[in-house]
């Protein structure tokens, strides 16, 4: 900013009009490099004053840049939300799959088929006809009666065997139709699900050692937010009563599409909900928190998480103040350095967004422009895009 001369609203508009009178793109680019001014459609309204309205873009370089990037890239809120969502789905699945005490009490007998009724009526009609024939032949021809009796007994035996086989077939069908699923089949379905087979992990997280054995897998050395901690944050969001004008966060924060939160919602998360959730989150007893991070020397997991989160919350609260004194600038600079150093200690293998470099230059910009007057100032989005194109500009420090 020291490269360009100080100007007022009138001189800035006159330079912008000079830029409009240029004909070639090369002349316009050279004019922007030498004077830092180009024409914008915002200069048309009478109320627009580019010099007075110039300010610090808190939304892009701090809230959408650092706060959102910290939750997604460093805390891994999406991974914790995925684990918590799978745990709740498996809990509901096992709850619905439990059989009742008497599953066959209300089923009743299997319904008879239409063909079975027709076969019974045909057999009854055949037997009546045979009986009439036997009665007619008994007083006319005894030999014929004996022969017919033998043949009728043979046919009756054959029909009884056919009827018995049909009944056996029907009973087999009805038994298989109303039989319960075996335990082996149920366990096979559970094995196909992307969950563990430990049913003790389905109970709500109460910070006991038995329930939290699978929270930190082997080899997971990078500090991040776990599903128990995310569950506490969700309870804080749902149980806290706020005014109607307050920006409300989704109750299932951390699940799908949580990255689409607006800048005001990310600001409320860092300045209101996270400070309320710090005490219950850090009162949880998780064994892996007391282990030391390999790449950070003697720092523990809980120390790095607590230090980075508190420094970012403090930095956000200081930059959103309406009045900032010179003593606050030194505190802002120290807090920014602590935040960057903590990220380098605990997350040395994770690349950060270039927005953090804008944050490191805030004290100098505040001395010249004063505290941020609004949440957003759109020219800084272009500056952030320029910083993103610089190679090796994806490290916190």
From TrEMBL:
Biased composition (Basic and acidic residues): 155-165
Region feature Disordered, mapped onto this chain: 97-135, 155-177
The protein, known as: Uncharacterized protein
